[in-house]
Design goal:
The structure holds 2 protein chains of 2 kinds.
Chain A: E1 17-24, H1 41-56, E2 65-69, H2 73-77, H3 82-85, E3 97-100, H4 106-119, E4 125-133, E5 136-138, E6 156-158, H5 161-168, H6 177-180, H7 182-185, H8 190-199, H9 203-222, H10 233-239, H11 245-249, E7 271-280, H12 284-287, E8 296-305, H13 313-329, E9 338-341, H14 347-355, H15 364-369, H16 386-390, H17 397-409, E10 424-431, E11 435-443
Parallel strand pairs in A: 2-3, 2-4, 9-10
Antiparallel strand pairs in A: 1-7, 1-8, 4-7, 5-6, 8-11, 10-11
Chain B: H1 8-17, E1 22-26, E2 32-33, E3 48-52, E4 56-59, E5 80-87, E6 92-98, H2 102-110, E7 114-122, E8 127-133
Parallel strand pairs in B: 6-8
Antiparallel strand pairs in B: 1-2, 1-3, 4-5, 4-7, 5-6, 7-8
Classes of the chains: A alpha/beta, B alpha+beta.
Chain lengths: 445, 136
C-alpha cells in the first residue's frame, strides 16, 4: 500500500441502475460564431437535458430530481446556485435539485451522484447534467457595468487564457499547496516523468507517444460532428509544408509547454453541456415505455481523491479508484471493450489505460504509437476525440464521455463506430486537484 | 485525547519565521505529517504532537519547470526542479529542489533518489520550505 493512501471497500448497490438516455451539445467556442454567440447557460443545460429525456423516451414529468454540475459557476456565469438559476428551462420547475462541483471531474461524479440516489430507492428516475462556459464570461457592456456584476442579460465575451489560468489557482489549497509551489506545477508533467522513469523508455519515445495521443484523438474527433477541432494533424502538417505529420508535431508549431508536454497535449477549453437520464433498471418498463435502445447498467464506480501536495496524485488516486471498482464488480481488465480517460493533460490517457489493465503495463505507449488506440484500432480510447480535440467544457466533459460511450455501445456512432460493438466500458474521471472516478458500465441484454 | 480547534497553519508559518520547520507526529503510530494537519493519515489517530523536522530528505523524481509551470515570481529560486520529496521522518510530498538544471538533470535522474536538505525560503510576504541538492 502506498504511504498515506487510505483504501475503501465498496458494497453493491441496493438495486440495479441504468443509463437510459443521453444528450450532448456540440462543444464549441460560442462567442466566435454568430450562430452560437448569445447562447445562455439555461439554453445549453436545457438542450442537453431535454435531448437526454427524448433519447430515453421520457418527459420531464417522469423525472424525479436533477443534479447540476458546473466547475466554476461564479466565474463562468456569476451564479452561486446554478441548479436553481436555470431551473425553469426543461420542464422540471419546483422539483428537487442540487448543484455540485468537482472541477474537471464533475461530469463523472455526476453519474456517481445520480446512481447513488436511484440505487438507494429514494428516486426511480433522475436527470444528471453539467454545463460550462469554459471559453467565455459575462461581459460588462456599457459604462455602468462591471466584470463582477454585468447588467446585460445575455452577452458574453471571450475568456482570455490569463484569466482562465488565474482561476485554476483556486483548484489548489491556499495554506500549503500554493505556498510550496511544486504541487500546482507538477500537474503538467508528473505522469509523463513517472512513465519514463518506471517503464524505462526514453524522453524521445515519450515525446512521440504524447504526439501520437494528440494525433489519435484528432483522428477520432475528425469523424465526430459534436467535436470542437476536426481537422486532422496530417492535413494541417501538409498545409504547413511538412511531408510527415510527426515532423510537424515535433516542430515549433507544437511547442513544448511543459517539461515534456507539448501544446497539442493540452485541453481545448470551450463551452458545452451534456446530460443523462438514470433509472432503476427494474422500473424501465413502467417509466420509459418508449425506450428504443438497450439500457446501459452502471456496474460500479470507484472513487478516490488525492490532494496536490501528495506525490503522483493522479497515479495514486487512479490506482485506488480502479482497484475499488474491479473489486466490487469482479470485472476483469480483459473484459473492457472501450476506455475513456479525461485527458486534459494528454498523458492521462496512456497512464490510466495501463493502470486499468486495458493496455499492458509498460507496453501502452507502443499501442498508441501504432495507432491501435484510435477509433479503428483494437484498443479504442476516447473515441469522441478527448479533451485535446473534442474539447473541454470542464464540468460537462465527463458526461460528454458518457454520452459517447453509450452511443458506441448502442452502435450509433456512424463513421467513428469502433470495430467490435462494445459491451463493457470503463471511464476514468479526473480533475479538481484531484478527484478521480473509475466507472464501469455494461449493456443490459 | 479530544480534538482541539487549533491554529496549525499559523503555527507552522510563524515557526518558519523563527527558523524552525515543524510537522506533527502521531502519538499512536509515530507517523509524521508534513505539512502539519490535525489527524494521522496512516492510522487515523488525532492525538498528534508537534515535532521539529530535521531537514534531511530524498528527492525521488525530477520535473523541470517550463512555460506552463513557471512564473516570474519564481525567478529568485535560481535553477530548480519539482519532485517527490521523502523526509527522513517518512513524510512524502511535492516540493521544490534548487540546484537542478537541464545540464545535470540526466545524471541526477540516473541515480535517484538523491539526497536533499530543507531550507527556509522567503517568498513575497511569508516564508516557505524548499530544498537544496546535497553534493556527494
Amino acid at each position: 500500500m502506498n504511504k498515506n493512501m487510505n483504501q475503501t471497500t465498496l458494497h453493491p448497490y441496493s438495486r440495479s441502475v441504468s443509463i437510459i438516455g443521453v444528450g450532448c451539445t456540440p462543444f464549441m467556442y460560442t462567442v466566435d460564431n454568430p450562430e452560437t454567440n448569445g447562447l445562455t447557460e439555461g439554453e445549453l443545460f436545457g438542450y442537453a437535458a431535454l435531448k437526454a429525456m427524448e433519447d430515453a423516451g421520457v418527459t420531464p414529468k417522469d423525472v424525479d430530481y436533477y443534479f447540476h454540475g458546473e466547475a466554476s459557476p461564479l466565474n463562468g456565469s456569476n451564479y452561486l446556485t446554478p441548479n436553481i438559476q436555470i431551473g425553469n428551462w426543461f420542464g422540471m420547475k419546483g422539483k428537487g435539485s442540487i448543484h455540485h462541483s468537482e472541477a474537471c471531474c464533475t461530469g463523472y461524479l455526476a453519474i456517481e451522484q445520480a446512481v447513488n440516489a436511484v440505487a438507494s430507492g429514494k428516486y426511480n428516475c433522475v436527470l444528471t447534467g453539467a454545463v460550462e462556459f469554459g471559453d467565455s464570461v459575462p461581459a460588462p457592456f456599457g459604462p455602468s457595468d462591471t466584470v463582477e456584476t454585468p447588467k446585460h442579460p445575455y452577452k458574453r465575451e471571450k475568456m482570455p487564457m490569463e484569466r482562465f489560468l488565474a482561476t485554476t489557482m483556486w483548484l489548489y489549497d491556499r495554506n500549503y499547496a500554493r505556498s510550496f509551489i511544486a504541487p500546482m506545477n507538477l500537474i503538467y508533467d508528473d505522469v509523463a516523468e513517472d512513465y519514463v522513469r518506471t517503464r524505462g523508455i526514453s524522453m524521445q519515445e515519450m515525446d512521440d507517444t504524447l504526439n501520437w495521443m494528440a494525433i489519435n484523438n484528432r483522428r477520432n474527433a475528425a469523424k465526430n460532428p459534436l467535436a470542437l477541432e476536426r481537422k486532422e494533424f496530417s492535413e494541417i502538417a501538409r498545409e504547413k509544408g511538412f511531408d510527415n505529420v510527426m515532423d510537424y508535431m515535433r516542430s515549433p508549431y507544437n511547442p513544448k509547454m511543459g517539461d515534456l508536454l507539448r501544446m497539442e497535449g493540452m485541453e481545448r477549453k470551450c463551452d458545452g453541456a451534456a446530460a443523462c437520464i438514470v433509472c432503476a433498471t427494474d422500473m424501465i418498463p413502467q417509466i420509459a415505455k418508449n425506450l428504443k435502445h438497450k439500457p446501459i447498467e452502471v456496474l460500479g464506480i470507484g472513487s478516490a481523491a488525492c490532494e496536490a501536495t501528495n506525490p503522483h496524485f493522479e497515479i495514486r488516486a487512479t490506482e485506488e479508484a480502479v482497484r475499488q471498482v474491479y473489486e466490487l464488480t469482479k470485472v476483469k481488465p480483459e473484459e473492457l471493450d472501450l476506455f475513456f480517460a479525461n485527458d486534459f493533460i494528454i498523458t492521462s490517457h496512456l497512464y490510466a489505460a495501463e493502470v486499468a489493465g486495458y493496455l499492458p503495463y509498460g507496453e501502452g505507449w507502443k499501442y498508441i504509437c501504432e495507432g491501435r488506440t484510435a477509433y479503428d484500432g483494437d484498443k479504442p480510447i476516447n473515441t469522441n476525440g478527448g479533451r485535446t480535440s473534442f474539447g473541454h467544457a470542464h464540468a460537462a466533459s465527463g458526461l460528454a464521455d458518457v454520452y459517447e460511450a453509450c452511443m458506441q455501445m448502442r452502435g450509433e456512432c456512424g463513421e467513428r463506430q469502433v470495430k467490435k460493438l462494445p459491451k463493457t466500458t470503463m471511464l476514468r474521471g479526473y480533475g479538481g486537484s484531484q478527484n478521480v472516478a473509475a466507472i464501469i458500465i455494461r449493456t443490459v441484454d | 485525547m479530544s480534538i482541539k480547534l487549533e491554529k496549525v497553519v499559523e503555527k507552522f508559518y510563524e515557526s518558519l519565521e523563527e527558523g524552525k520547520i515543524l510537522g506533527r507526529k502521531c502519538c499512536s503510530c509515530g507517523a509524521v505529517e508534513f505539512p502539519p494537519v490535525y489527524a494521522c493519515n496512516e492510522c487515523g489517530c488525532w492525538d498528534m504532537e508537534w515535532v521539529e523536522i530535521d531537514g534531511e530528505a530524498e528527492m525521488h523524481s525530477i520535473v523541470l519547470p517550463a512555460a506552463l509551470s513557471s512564473k516570474p515570481e519564481y525567478k529568485p529560486l535560481g535553477k530548480y526542479a519539482y519532485g517527490e520529496i521523502v523526509l527522513k521522518e517518512g513524510s512524502r510530498f511535492n516540493g521544490v529542489v534548487r540546484g537542478i538544471t537541464k545540464k545535470n538533470r540526466a545524471e541526477l535522474a540516473a541515480k535517484l533518489p538523491v539526497k536533499v536538505k530543507a531550507d527556509i525560503y522567503q517568498r513575497d510576504g511569508y516564508k516557505t520550505v524548499v530544498f537544496d541538492l546535497v553534493e556527494d
